[in-house]
Amino acid sequence: QVYGFYDECLRKYGNASAWRHCVSCFDTFSLAAIIDSRVLCVHGGLSPDVRTLDQIRAIDRQQEIPHEGAFCDLVWSDPEDITTPWQISPRGAGYLFGSRVTDEFNYVNRLDLIARAHQLVMEGKRYHFPNRNLVTVWSAPNYCYR
Q1: For each of the chain's 146 residues, which pLDDT tens digit applies?
Q2: Residue 1 burial by CB count (10 A; 0-12/13-18/19+): exposed, middle or buried?
Q3: What is the DSSP string of 96-123?
Q4: Where along the chain do the CATH 3.60.21.10 domains lie?
Q5: Looking at the domain covering 31-145, what would its CATH class be?
Q6: Cβ atoms 125, 136 nearer than 8 A
Q7: Which of 28, 66, 117, 120 has the fewest C-beta atoms under 10 angstroms from its C-beta?
């Protein structure tokens, strides 16, 4: 309801039924995906509670996004050029994480890249960190009229 989808459904369909059906579908989507055993796709970012892909696989997806913990972090965390491994996110959920965390996670899990979204990038994509082993992809033109 926060980002306007609920209101858009009300305008287009006259009631909240379509919104409820969509949200029910969203609740079944995978938390993450692996492409060719080398690319992790996730909405937000990494979590200090997750070191391996098996730990992501073990998360119970059939629930609302909690306010803290690994599930929350994978949805809300963001990459940032920071000198500490982790910092509390100014969003109020998730963490900021740096290149060292990304390098270590990719090494442990034999990944080449983490692909994520969750942040507006005007160019459509942005590689982070010197190793360019994390990319933010944004495909919503005119998001919030920007």
Answers
A1: 556 889 999 999 999 999 999 988 888 889 999 999 999 999 999 999 999 999 999 999 888 889 999 999 999 999 999 999 999 999 999 999 999 999 999 999 999 999 999 888 888 899 999 999 999 998 876 666 65
A2: exposed
A3: EE-HHHHHHHHHHTT-SEEEE-SS--TT
A4: 31-145
A5: alpha beta
A6: yes
A7: 28
